[in-house]
Amino acid sequence: MQKFEIQILGCGSALPTRKHLPSCQVVNLRDKLLLLDCGEGAQLQWRFTGLNWQNIHHILLTHAHGDHVFGLPGFLSTMGLLGRQNPLFIHGPSSLQTFVEYMKAHFFPDLSYELHFIPVDTTVHQQIFEDRSMEIWSLPLQHRLPCCGYLIKEKPGQAHIRREMIDFYEVPTWAINRIKAGEGWTTQTGEYIPHERLTTPADPVRSYAYCTDTQPVPELAEWCKGIDLMYHEATYAETEKDRAETYAHSTALQAAKTAKAAGVKRLVIGHFSSRYEDEQVLLEEAQTVFQNTILASERLILTP
Amino acid sequence: MQKFEIQILGCGSALPTRKHLPSCQVVNLRDKLLLLDCGEGAQLQWRFTGLNWQNIHHILLTHAHGDHVFGLPGFLSTMGLLGRQNPLFIHGPSSLQTFVEYMKAHFFPDLSYELHFIPVDTTVHQQIFEDRSMEIWSLPLQHRLPCCGYLIKEKPGQAHIRREMIDFYEVPTWAINRIKAGEGWTTQTGEYIPHERLTTPADPVRSYAYCTDTQPVPELAEWCKGIDLMYHEATYAETEKDRAETYAHSTALQAAKTAKAAGVKRLVIGHFSSRYEDEQVLLEEAQTVFQNTILASERLILTP
């Protein structure tokens, strides 16, 4: 299996607590790193991940609330101080472009790397990036201002060579990559050996959705159908359902219903209101409709 | 003694480490709170102080580098979310005014409290604030952009009543405050008792200077003459003296020489470069010329 890990750097909401930092996650897909949101303290938490700043290729921002972006200026600035060379792509609602440009102009005009802002249309579910190993899709969310989540899908890898078959049919080394990529092999005696006999299938592709901040969005059931892991905000318990609606957030029960409707394999809930000393109440509420739920926590590492 | 405490929330420099946060301190003078700088993570550290956000009256900013101000947006925003009512005064170089205004307009336009920015002329040593309990003075520093430190001087309190003398001369309760404030007392038999006989002197006034970021400033010897406690940046050791000069910072030795020239009672050094795993080298260097030096550290509480 190739690497596909999500590490949670912060899963609190707007008010800081002694326990939680504001929103930030890092996705490690085959050693390419994506940052999801960048709440205050992200660069401080980063120091504990052991990951290389240079390998962050994209930062995906959900919306222009401080608890999701106030760590960004320090993060960008520090990468510059460390001499980062690789260009960096920031994706997010267009309103955040001026913020990034303002901070750059006033605080770190001479960055050592190229910084590109790519506006995301938060009203459309579409692919916003792809390369050989992944696709990233936007997930329109419903919050108090333009907001979108992100779906990260691994692309299929190559088939695995069956060593004993390669030896048996005396396949030369130069042909291995073509076989991995899908071809069969014709032996010296003219016998055709199909690809499937020479290989075992590629690993199944995995997928992860990051859905915060939002009230329940029915379309997520379709867009995230059958994915492996969904992070969905669960700011409140059902007892605060009215408040959740007022502030366009979700309850733990609503998050679980979304996960169930989408048929995801696993749900992780986060963006906890500071009112919950212990989030067990949120977990138990979610598990009443979706058993395979876990609580987010700082430095937790998950695999889809 | 009335309360006069300095709590260090962050004493690192621009690059974050696992050990230090960027610059921030809180001064508690008779339960009025001043924030000195506001590096990223300040609001997160605040949660551990047990202090009340409402009691912060002034934020004093030294200069427009990210490691001194990137915590400000979150700090201001959170106080609003918590329903702060007291007006807040931010003092600092004028370039920071647009930063505060930009962030307010884009991220927290509807603050629950009045926010006033008061530009500080960083080229002049002058009193920028006073009330019944303190004076605040600017300390022009020399950095790569306009920068100033701050000198906080306690004002004299009232004399202490000698209970046994009050009883002996049968001084009525209504006269006590006048005696505390400096008057004497004439007894029923016409005998005049001088103030000094009825009281013991007020506590000595104390003072604290916050000097960061800067190369050595000779005038500090005059401006901070004989003060109780000086925080002076010591980003580097003498082995990095050239680098200190290039970036307009100080070495530990230079900080100590400034403290000695000023004849301060105690020196605390901070703003440590991330290159020092252990700041003992900085402490020992400083102590070669100024013995009464200590190292800053997060959550350290000092009294002048």
Walkthrough of the structure:
The structure is a homodimer. Chain A starts with a strand and ends with a strand. In chain A, α10 packs parallel to α11 (about 280-285). The first copy, chain A, has 2 domains: about 5-155 and about 205-300, Ribonuclease Z/Hydroxyacylglutathione hydrolase-like (Metallo-beta-lactamase, Chain A, 4-Layer Sandwich); about 160-200, no CATH class. Chain A is built from 11 helices and 18 strands. Chain A is α/β, with parallel strands linked by helices. The model of chain A has no long low-confidence stretch (mean pLDDT about 95).
Unreliable segments of 5+ consecutive residues of chain A:
none
In the CATH hierarchy, what is the class of the largest domain in chain A?
Alpha Beta
From the 3D structure, determine the CATH topology of the largest domain in chain A: Metallo-beta-lactamase, Chain A
Terminal residue distance of chain A: 12 Å
**Arithmetic mean of pLDDT of chain A:** 96
Shape of chain A: globular
Rg from Cα of chain A: 22 Å
Give the full name of the CATH homologous superfamily of the largest domain in chain A. Answer: Ribonuclease Z/Hydroxyacylglutathione hydrolase-like
List the strand order in the largest sheet of chain A.
Answer: 6-5-4-3-2-1-18
Number of helices of chain A: 11
Oligomer, anyone?
homodimer
Largest sheet of chain A: 7 strands, mixed
Class by helix and strand content of chain A? alpha/beta
